[in-house]
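Two quick folds needed for the group meeting slides. Do the first one here.
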Amino acid sequence: MTEEAGRAFRAAWIAGVRKHFPGEPKPGYVAPWEDTPQWEREAAAAVCQQIRQFAEVSAGSTVKLTREQKGRFVAICWVAQIHKHFEAPKPSYVADWESLPEWQRQTDMDIFEAIE
């Protein structure tokens, strides 16, 4: 895990939550890096690295993806991390794209674009 990658992901997540969440987000949604659980730091770093690698092996062609395609990539990478860290996660933690709230889909799209 690289802390820099995790911090980049977390910063993009917090920015997206502050922009898209309706009302006041839960404190854990916008907690600073230092207050983020270790598993979540590792997951954030892994997904950030996956986005970067995807853009790299695609020779930058990820810029041609739609915002939704970018967001779906983030969401599926995150779900894989949830399964890695939790033996029996809550269904809401591993929900398919269509089941995610709009604010979360928009945030995932923003994360991809911020890291890309």
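Then this one, please, same format:
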Amino acid sequence: MATTATSARHRGQAIEAATATWLSERGLELVTRNHHAKGGEIDLIMRDGDCLVFVEVRHRRDAAYGHPLETVTPAKQKRIVKAARFYLHSQRLSCACRFDVVGVTGTAPDLVFDWIRAAFDAY
């Protein structure tokens, strides 16, 4: 029997995969998923033309306790930026970048996606 942590991990992976597909249908191209770096992880790295997009995916079954977009705190943003810098350095990339957040509510197959392009800046 799967543990709660394992179930949550699988559910998270399924939500990220659905989000990657949803974004691809809107013109972005998937580069990689779940990029781990010192101090953080980037859920999705995608291309939007010449721009590299670091995507944070947040999910809640419903918004009864707040929308998932509200969970991307300044501390979380800082970890994402740090991981993005590590990725750019390790890949020897110098290109335009942005940080998007996708809030997902519902349960599969009835998911609602709220996409904020350029949700925050690197600081």
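Slide caption for protein two: The helical segments are 4-24, 74-90.
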